[in-house]
C-alpha cells in the first residue's frame, strides 16, 4: 500500500495555512458530505486531514464528522474566507435538515460487532470517482444499497474491520484508503442484496422524500416506524435501525420485503396510507410514474412527458392525481358493466 501514499508531506505549513488564503480551492461533488470535501481540501493544500482539523480548531477525534451535523459560524466563516466557497454550498454539504435527523447513523468512533458505524460507502462509486468522495445519503440508516450500481453498501474496511476513520488520517492519503490499514476500499468485493429488498429501500427513500417535501405532520411517525423496523423483522431484537450494521440492515430489509406493508401504513390517514401503498407496490416513484404514464396513455391520451419524474410536493400531487384517475377508471368500468343490457 506504500504506493498509495504521496511522496511529499508539508506539515510544517500548518501555521502558514491559518494566515494565508489557501492556495487550492476545490468544488464540492454532487451530494458530497462536508467532512469528505474537507478531507479533499486538506490534501489538495498539502495538509493531512487530522492536523487540518487542528487548523479548523476542531481538536482530535471525529471533529470534521461533527461538522456535518453542526457547522459552526466560526468554521463556516474561515472556510468562506480561505477556501473561496459560498455559504449555500457549505450548507448543502451538511446533514442538518431536521426531518430525517433521527435516521442518521450515529457518530461513533469505536466499532463493535453488528453495530452501525458512522457512515457507509459503495466501493464501485469510489472506484468510478475521479476524486473519490463520500456521499451524504450514505449517512442514512435507511440506505443499504447503491441505486447506481445495485450492490450493497459497506460500513467497514474488509481488511481490518474498522469503520471509516478518514478524519484520523495522518498521511496525505485520499479517503478511499482505509485510515487504519491503508486497504483500497474501492477494491472491496461486491455485496449482494435481493432485488425485493432494494425495491423496498427505494420505496422508503421516496416515501421519506415526499414526507419531507410536504412538510408532512406524519414524518415523525414515519421515522418512528422505520427506526422500529428491526423489531418488526425480528433482527437484532431491541436495537433501532440506526444502531445496526449495514449487513444486519440488509437482512432486515430482505425479511421485510416479503411481508405485508402494514407496518408502514397501519393506523395512518387514508390518503397517506394509500400513497405509501402505491409507492411500495410499484417499487419507488420512478416505476409508479411509468405506470401512471402508461395508464394515462391508455385511458386519457396523456402525453409521455409525465415520465419525467417530479420531486417532492409535485410528486405528492401526481400520486394524488393517479389515485383519483384510477378510482375514476374503476367507477367507469363498474358503470359500463352495470349498463350492459341483459340478453
Ligand atoms: Zn455505487
Ligand atoms: Zn482497514
Describe the structure.
With 343 residues, this protein is mostly helical. The protein folds into 2 domains: 186 residues, no CATH class; 144 residues, no CATH class. 46% of the residues lie in helices and 0% in strands. It is built from 15 helices and no strands. Helix 14 packs parallel to helix 15. The N terminus and C terminus are likely disordered. Bound molecules: zinc ion (2 copies). One zinc ion (ZN) binds next to loops. Pfam families: TniQ.
Write a brief caption for the model.
The protein is mainly α and 343 residues long.
Number of domains: 2
Main β-sheet description? none
Number of strands: 0
Which consecutive residue ranges, at least 5 long each, have pLDDT under 50? Answer: 1-12, 336-343
How many helical elements? 15
What's the Cα radius of gyration? 24 Å
Series of secondary-structure elements, N-terminal to C-terminal:
HHHHHHHHHHHHHHH
Helix content: 40-55%
Overall shape: globular
* N-end to C-end Cα span: 84 Å
Overall residue-averaged pLDDT value: 82
Class from secondary-structure proportions: mainly alpha
Ligand inventory reads:
zinc ion
- Share of residues in strands: under 5%
Amino acid at each position: 500500500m506504500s504506493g498509495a501514499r504521496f511522496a511529499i508531506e508539508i506539515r510544517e505549513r500548518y501555521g502558514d495555512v491559518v494566515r494565508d488564503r489557501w492556495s487550492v480551492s476545490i468544488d464540492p461533488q454532487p451530494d458530497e458530505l462536508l467532512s469528505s470535501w474537507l478531507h479533499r481540501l486538506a490534501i489538495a493544500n498539502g495538509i493531512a486531514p487530522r492536523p487540518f482539523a487542528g487548523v479548523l480548531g476542531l481538536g482530535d477525534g471525529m471533529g470534521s464528522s461533527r461538522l456535518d451535523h453542526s457547522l459552526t459560524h466560526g468554521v463556516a466563516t474561515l472556510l468562506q474566507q480561505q477556501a473561496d466557497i459560498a455559504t449555500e454550498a457549505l450548507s448543502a454539504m451538511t446533514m442538518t435538515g431536521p426531518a430525517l435527523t433521527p435516521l442518521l447513523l450515529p457518530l461513533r468512533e469505536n466499532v463493535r460487532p453488528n453495530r452501525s458505524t458512522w457512515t457507509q460507502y459503495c466501493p464501485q462509486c469510489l472506484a468510478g470517482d475521479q476524486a473519490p468522495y463520500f456521499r451524504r445519503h450514505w449517512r442514512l440508516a435507511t440506505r443499504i444499497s447503491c441505486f447506481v450500481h445495485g450492490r450493497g453498501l459497506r460500513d467497514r474496511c474488509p481488511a481490518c474491520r474498522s469503520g471509516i476513520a478518514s478524519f484520523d488520517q495522518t498521511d496525505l492519503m485520499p479517503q478511499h484508503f482505509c485510515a487504519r490499514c491503508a486497504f483500497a476500499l474501492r477494491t472491496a468485493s461486491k455485496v449482494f442484496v435481493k432485488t425485493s429488498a432494494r425495491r423496498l429501500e427505494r420505496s422508503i427513500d421516496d416515501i421519506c422524500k415526499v414526507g419531507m417535501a410536504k412538510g408532512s405532520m406524519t414524518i415523525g411517525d414515519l421515522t418512528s416506524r422505520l427506526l422500529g423496523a428491526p423489531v418488526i423483522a425480528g433482527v437484532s431484537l431491541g436495537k433501532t435501525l440506526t444502531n445496526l450494521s449495514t449487513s444486519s440492515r440488509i437482512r432486515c430489509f430482505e425479511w421485510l420485503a416479503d411481508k405485508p406493508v402494514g407496518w408502514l401504513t397501519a393506523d395512518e390517514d387514508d390518503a397517506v396510507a394509500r400513497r405509501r401503498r402505491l409507492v411500495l407496490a410499484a417499487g419507488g416513484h420512478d416505476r409508479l410514474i411509468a405506470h401512471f404514464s402508461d395508464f394515462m396513455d391508455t385511458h386519457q391520451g396523456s402525453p409521455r412527458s409525465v415520465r419525467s419524474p417530479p420531486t417532492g410536493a409535485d410528486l405528492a400531487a401526481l400520486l394524488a392525481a393517479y389515485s383519483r384517475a384510477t378510482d375514476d377508471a374503476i367507477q367507469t368500468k363498474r358503470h359500463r358493466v352495470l349498463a350492459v343490457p341483459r340478453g
